[in-house]
Amino acid sequence: MSAIKLSQFFQKYNLTNSQSELVSKLEAFIDAPNSSQNIFLLKGYAGTGKTFITKGLTEYLKEIRRTFILAAPTGKAAKVIANKTQNEAYTIHKTIYSTNDIKEYKENENDKTYKFYFDLRVNEDSNNTIYIIDEASMISNIYSEPEFFRFGSGFLLQDLLKYINIDCNDHNKKIIFIGDNAQLPPIGMNFSPALDAQYLKQTFNLLVNDYELTEVVRQKSDSGILKNTVPIRKSLDNQTFNQLDIDTNYNDVAHIAHEDFLNTYLMQCNNRIDQDTIVIAFSNASVKEYNDKIREYFFPGNTNNITVNDKVLVVSNNANYEIFISNGDFGIIQEVSYKPEVKHIVTKNGIINETLYFRDVTILFHDINGVPHSIKSKIIENLLYSDKSNLSSNQHKALYVDFVMRNPHLKSNTKEWKDALKKDPYFNALKIKFGYAITCHKAQGSEWKNVFLNCKTHQSVLSQSYFRWIYTAITRSSEKLFTLDEPHFSPFTKMQQYNSPVLQPIETKEINDSTNNEFSAQITLPEFIEDAIYSETKKLLDQSDIKITDTIHNQYCEQYTLEYNNEICRIKFIYNSKNKITKVSAIETNTLAKLAEILLKSLENKTLFLANMAEDKKHFVFAENFLEEYYNAILNTISNYDIEIIQIEHFNYLERYTFKQNNEVSIIDFYYNGKKQFTRSQPQSNSSIELSKLILSLLN
């Protein structure tokens, strides 16, 4: 009897259409030989069921007895996917690197300081293993080197592929990368290489298949958290960043003022330190402020004094304890020494002159499987209380100098020396920060029931980097999101309004002043195209003393006879069925003809509006999505005021709208820039003053 197929296994579930398509693609990928497909990218928007499909996939692989390994970039991310799939999961570092031995290297021959790296493990996994890597958007492929201990080559993605030896045809190993490429890319990169099919093909010559889930599953469709991510995701897909309005009118999304932060935070965590509540802020300095504020409540007067029951966050991988302690792991302080141990480290040449502060602590960690471990270690307080993300280069070097000075009897790079270095409590002191508030990069790959998000950053709000940042931050919340300083940018927010140079002085004129009919606050639209052409032509010729002495009406052509200084010429206006003037040309070649052509040339390619056009149902066509979105935004804004849009003309970086309300008409130019952001508006001089003011006030 042949093994059950993946699509058959998923028949017991009610899948969305896109999930069904994904399962079919995954089935083909799993069944195909390594030589035809070896990488699958399972991408998806937040709430589309990536984790659900992953859980079903692992259950299927267990049923058909095919080996798989579940891994993620951080310990917290590994715990999340392990909990949701009910399978063991590990960090990528623990999966592919050997921490039994350290190897030394020098960056150059003149470097007197040795550095060390953990090499790749020997891969003893079965030949048909499938590696399922969650939160793959976080996997970097640029050089990463801590001050002394490096993992592999320093290129995580490259090392992962080398460990699996993925491009070898002697086995049937495969990788499934799972993630959301709208999230923050790895630090130092502007895209997520492990989720980029083109990059994987070109850089590693891999055979890549992919699928992206876009349909939010029904049971999550009412989530305000997810509803706020949809327009952000759409903007990222379209590369258009001209509006961002976080809607807090949901049961699971709420705005809070800064003065209400602490009380709301304490209410959510029931006045105790819990693991379900987190604060996310942009900078390390802002994170420190929140940590200090929360700790002042729980541990009054101990802002610079770590305390039993403090929640802490590991900020650097450490493989030198009984369990692998991963960057991003949270722990609880169980014991702490009464006062810090102070070390003054000074080299003979004075280049290193640092004071380091250590504490002896016991920290409770839970491993990937949830098993508790009480780890006795030293911590470096210089980092703990600072607003920096890590120790300085000189502080790191001081740790090494201190080790060398304390061990003069050990010969460099011998086995004894390396063993002593791995076990040295000062050199391997844990690098931790307080864990009540964290940056978005540290939060990535994790989720909490309650997230407090300070949305303020030093980035431009209407930029790709900010959209990725806030999308990642919002999706860290599984139940309740509280926002501070959330953005409310409509398409009109950045738009500066300019009055027409003619409009401003006319404001004091009487509406029925017959000498200013063309600029009056009431304009009557012509009913016929012939009248419209005459009106536009006269308006332009009135700038001079050129007179219209005769008109001839032909089908789709108007011919005018003009007179000036005893000179006569004839001008032809060709127009089409859409009331657009396509050509303006003179029949004669005299001086008047040349002057008239110059004055009237602006009418070419202009569509004229008639009284009955507003009664027609308009179906405007837009060359780009953001222009149509802008139109819809204007339409929604004016819909309750009986204002109609009767014409839109498209120019380079300019949309010209003609609005009508009763007998009043306003023509407004809306300018946009190369970033697809509308920047200013300006009514034309022949617009109704009152209607223009009303429209611009509504869009303000």
Break the fold down into its secondary structure elements and pairings.
Layout (H helix, E strand, L loop, with lengths): L5 H4 L7 H15 L7 E6 L5 H14 L4 E5 L2 H11 L4 E2 H5 L6 E3 L9 E4 L11 E4 L15 E3 L4 H9 L9 E6 L17 H8 L3 E6 L10 H15 L5 E2 L7 E3 L5 H8 L8 E5 L2 H15 L12 E4 L15 E7 L4 E6 L6 E14 L5 E9 H4 L8 H14 L8 H9 L8 E3 L2 E3 H4 L4 E7 L9 H11 L2 E8 L3 E2 L6 E2 L5 H4 L22 H13 L5 E8 L2 E8 L2 E9 L4 E7 L4 H10 L5 E2 L17 H14 L5 E8 L2 E8 L2 E9 L5 E6 L5 H11 L1
Parallel strand pairs: 1-8, 1-9, 2-3, 2-6, 5-7, 6-8, 11-21, 12-19, 12-20, 20-21, 23-32
Antiparallel strand pairs: 4-5, 10-22, 13-14, 13-18, 14-16, 15-16, 16-17, 24-25, 25-26, 26-27, 27-28, 29-30, 30-31, 31-32
Question: Can you describe this structure?
Answer:
GO terms for molecular function: helicase activity. It is built from 20 helices and 32 strands. With 700 residues, the chain is α/β, with parallel strands linked by helices. Among the domains are: 1-217, Rossmann fold (3-Layer(aba) Sandwich), CATH 3.40.50.300; 529-607, 2-Layer Sandwich (TATA-Binding Protein), CATH 3.30.310; 625-699, TATA-Binding Protein, CATH 3.30.310.240. A hairpin with a 5-residue loop joins strand 16 and strand 17 (372-380). The longest helix has 15 residues, at 17-31. The chain starts with 5 loop residues before the first helix and ends with a helix.
